[in-house]
Amino acid sequence: MATLFFKCLLGAAAVLLIALLSKSKSFYIAGLVPLFPTFALIAHYIVGSERSMEDLRMTALFGLCSLVPYAGYLVAVYILSYYYNLTATLSLATVVWLGCAGLLLVGWTRWSPLLVANSL
Q1: What angle separates helix 86-119 from helix 67-80, to the nearest 10 degrees?
Q2: 36, 79 in Cβ contact below 8 A?
Q3: CA-to-CA dists, residue 1 to 28, 30, 48, 70, 71, angstroms
Q4: Tens digits of per-residue pLDDT, 36-93?
Q5: CA 41, CA 116: separation in Å to the nearest integer?
Q6: Does pTM top 0.90 for this prediction?
Q7: Residues 30 and 45 in one domain
Q8: Are residues 25 and 52 located together in one domain of the fold?
């Protein structure tokens, strides 16, 4: 239960930091905060302590590939913000993220067995 509380506390701290930075002169730094590997650290610790180092490496590789949907989201926000209001921009960009994430998952499930086989 204490571990769950600590995870919630980290999430709340990140949201608070984003809110504070968004009101500052350096508001753009708020876009960097979500990229701090808070949840990646938690995930990697759990995978690393409960599974093999090979599984940790695969988790890290998948995390690296997961930057593609995030990049798609950011590109969509940048482009769509010229044409739509905030709600539509963020909604459509989320659809782009979902599409990219879906493609990533389909591709990963199809090709990750090949990655494992080639690493042995």
Answers
A1: 160
A2: no
A3: 35, 30, 20, 31, 34
A4: 887 888 889 999 999 999 999 999 999 999 999 999 999 999 999 999 999 999 999 9
A5: 23
A6: no
A7: no
A8: no
